[in-house]
Amino acid sequence: MSRSTSVGGGESGELLHRLVGGDGGAALDALLDGFGQRHPEVSMRDVADENLSLEVKSRILKESPPDVWIEWPGKNLQPYDDAAVLGDVTSVWEDTDMERYYLDGPRNAAKFDGVYRAVPLNIHRINNLFYDVEQAEALGVDPAAIDSPRAFAEELQRIDAETDQTGMLFPMKNPWTVLQMWETVLLGEHGHDTYRRVTDDAAAAHRRAIVDALDIVGQYAEVATEDRLYTSLTDANERFVDGESVFFHQGDWAAGAYTESPEFDYGTDWDHVPFPGTDGLYAMNMDAVIAASVTDDSEAVSTFLSYVGSADGQRRFNQKKGSIPPRTDVDTSAFTPFLQEQQSAFQQSASQPLSITHGLGVRPDQLIELKTAMSTFVSSWDSEAVADDVVAALDRSA
């Protein structure tokens, strides 16, 4: 699927992305509309391609890269940086107020060796634990009082043993949901320092933590529904809305289905807390706009990146996307109450860990191997053997 539209006039640039339809398409349209109003002198042609990464790589090899594209930042961009094909956008950061209003997590995800290579556009929180308010109250469960992933496993086991309720739906049809659960458990049970060292080529030194997190994930699986291996994220999310479980762990994008349900009200029917053990941490997935090192119109690129990093651009985009802005000064008064709370938690967070599952915390080749390891895990439940696979993936040189 592809589309091509343009906004603006004189100077020109090309934006490649995969945001078509749904909240992503609406968010991009809002961003481009705002850009066109602010900068009618610049023409920004947007081209959609569902095989974005492949298309970007192909065009770089053909020496005709897009001027800018939307992609995950962090270690996902490491191969591009190694190949010296990313533009230096440091001047965009330094000539605007962006450095002042971005927290360390998003800023670090945009930099390689002190040079800015990207402008983060939005943030999704990974470490949410959603819960059914009525069920939690009926069972005498205080989600905010569960202080660790291991304590959460014990609570799920109690619910399974003493009631007819499902403690937590756990979709495993796609290995990324299992990987996301594992990284969240690792973060909550062993802390941000261990999490960061595991992703920074020191996984072998923390193998016991890796095994322990896998064991806890296995405990969650033991009390999940029998069809867990065949359940997709979308199906599980819909079943949570229908009241099938007390808890559901997922990124904040899952809440889009909750806010669209007329009989599932925030604060009354559903609520959320940080996943046990991760209070004060804002584990992030994000999109960013990246510039190529070669462009026919550097002025158009700089103008567009400056708008992407502005409060106006991020307000427009994130309100439609169902995410929060990486800037801390954006007016979110028109956002949903849930997203306003997410923004407040982001601003108050002590650290903003980069997600493994969504490519910010690991390189693309490592992510493929980690997903493969999780596929092995759900078929064997052998924590020791899978830990060896995880260590091999994370400690292997690029």
Automatic annotation (TrEMBL):
<dbReference type="InterPro" id="IPR006059">
    <property type="entry name" value="SBP"/>
</dbReference>
<dbReference type="Pfam" id="PF13416">
    <property type="entry name" value="SBP_bac_8"/>
</dbReference>
<keyword id="KW-0732">Signal</keyword>
<protein>
    <submittedName>
        <fullName>ABC transporter substrate-binding protein</fullName>
    </submittedName>
</protein>
<comment type="similarity">
    <text>Belongs to the bacterial solute-binding protein 1 family.</text>
</comment>
<keyword id="KW-0813">Transport</keyword>
<dbReference type="InterPro" id="IPR050490">
    <property type="entry name" value="Bact_solute-bd_prot1"/>
</dbReference>
